[in-house]
Specification:
There is one protein chain. The chain is 29% helix and 33% strand. By secondary structure, the chain is of the alpha+beta class. A hairpin with a 2-residue loop joins strand 1 and strand 2. The N and C termini lie far apart (37 Å). Strands 1-2-3 form a three-stranded antiparallel sheet, with helices on one face.
Length: 87
């Protein structure tokens, strides 16, 4: 199921057009905060945040944001928080 979701996401991103005058927004190389991950997740799936969990995989921070939608469904949005900066 996860592979199917990822494949659909890549197909969707292939069809999204970006205006030529758009300025790209880049995240810093350090990991984003949980609050920023929640904001990004709520842009994708509006609703009430039930929980946020943080994992580190291969030096990257991954957030899983669980959201209750208006129609009563629970969705989990995965946010890539970026690479951890070595100190």
């Amino acid at each position: 199921m996860r592979i199917l979701t990822i494949a659909c996401w890549f197909l969707l991103m292939a069809y999204v057009s970006v205006p030529a005058d758009a300025t790209p927004t880049l995240l810093p190389l350090s990991a984003i905060s949980a609050q920023q991950a929640v904001q990004l997740a709520q842009k994708k799936v509006p609703g009430r945040v039930l929980s946020v969990s943080k994992q580190v995989r291969s030096g990257r921070v991954i957030y899983h944001v669980k959201i209750l939608t208006k129609d009563g469904r629970v969705r989990v949005v995965t946010i890539d928080g970026g690479k951890l900066r070595k100190s």
